[in-house]
Amino acid sequence: MAKPAREYRTVDARPSRESLVKPGELVDLIEVTPLTLNDRRIYNQLLENAWDAIDKPVVHVISKSALRGSHNSNDRVGESIERLMAAIVKVEAVWDGKPAVERVQLLGGNLEMTRGDGLLEYEIPPRLRKIISNSTVFARLQREVMFALSSKYALTLYEMVQKRGNLRWRSSEKFTVEAIRGVLGVPKGKLSSWSNLRMRALEPAAAEVSALSDYMVEIVPIKTGRSVTHVELRWWRKDGEATGKAERALQFASTGRRARADGTAEEIVGQGAAPRPRPAWLDRQGAALRSETYETARLRFPGYDIYFVEGEWRAWAAGKEPPADPDRAFLAFFRKYAEANPT
Question: How far apart are CA 135 and CA 102, in angstroms?
Answer without folding.
Answer: 14
